[in-house]
Specification:
The chain has seven helices and 14 strands. Helices cover about 35% and strands about 30% of the residues. It is of the alpha+beta class and about 280 residues long. Pfam families: SHOCT.
């Protein structure tokens, strides 16, 4: 059921009971023309009033980064507002959206509450598992294991790989841009040199091609990390909590990949710019 609509600069904002929809008629590169964001995903609205330059409204999902003025002009989760008069029209529907965000948070809790609930769901039933879809395949997560299921055979010649949560040393997640993003798993069985080469090992990763893939895999990453903490708190000696890597650590790893010829100079510079943003 549609509660309200608002149009500005080739974009129509539709507010329903459980979500907002952005329908873009303007050209925004290769991005999708219709975007749906459920209120369970919507963290906040970042607003820039128009002055001498156009303003914008950016609907930020949970765990999304903030964006600058230039990014807002082409972002699929944003709409452009050129005049102060049009912005005043937007403010009327803005209050409705913000009210729905508050009401949803009161009903469903925070994203951390959701992860805690999923951990409880998995650990209370050894036969329970959760499925997270991505472009290349899907993940199956249980209380103690993660399995990667590929839609096509990877270089290892097998469409499925499973490993224990306790064996995972780190998880790397990247958004898609000019190239597909990825969720990659590094386990304790790989030494430092093998770890760099494993970065391109398709059997340890799934491709991410859109923002929906990214958000599903982000939740999967949080869930796996929280499961490790859960087992560590239960005094499981095989589980060592994941140690967050600093930007410097990640840059060193990518520099090593460059030095060994595994990635190109262009790929290294792109990743460097992303990490230092």
């Amino acid at each position: 059921m549609t509660m309200a609509t608002f149009q500005s600069m080739g974009t129509t904002l539709i507010i329903s009971e459980d979500r907002i929809t952005l329908e873009h008629n303007r050209k925004i590169g290769n991005l999708r023309k219709t975007i749906e964001i459920a209120f369970t995903e919507l963290e906040k609205i970042e607003e820039r009033k128009p002055t001498l330059f156009s303003g914008y409204v950016y609907f930020r999902r949970n765990h999304d980064p903030s964006i600058d003025d230039k990014e807002a002009m082409i972002h699929e989760q944003a709409m452009i507002i050129r005049s102060k008069k049009k912005y005043k029209e937007y403010e009327k529907v803005s209050e409705l959206i913000k009210q729905r965000i508050v009401e949803n948070a009161q009903q469903t809790g925070t994203p951390d509450d959701r992860i805690d609930s999923l951990v409880k769901q998995l650990t209370s039933n050894p036969h329970e598992s959760l499925r997270y879809e991505a472009h290349q395949g899907h993940l199956i997560i249980s209380a103690h294991t993660v399995s990667i299921h590929h839609k096509t055979l990877h270089r290892g010649g097998n469409g499925q790989r499973e490993f224990s949560i306790s064996s995972i040393n780190s998880i790397h997640l990247s958004k898609s841009g000019l190239k597909a993003g990825r969720i990659r798993f590094f386990t304790e069985s790989t030494n430092s040199r093998e770890k760099y080469k494993a970065y391109l090992a398709s059997e340890n990763e799934l491709l991410i091609t859109g923002i929906d893939d990214y958000h599903r895999m982000y939740e999967a990453k949080l869930l796996i990390e929280r499961l490790r903490v859960y087992h560590a708190d239960k005094h499981d000696p095989s589980v060592i909590p994941l140690t967050p890597r600093s930007t410097a650590d990640e840059l060193r790893e990518f520099k090593a990949l460059l030095d060994e010829g595994i990635i190109t100079e262009e790929e290294f510079e792109q990743k460097k710019a992303q990490l230092l943003r």
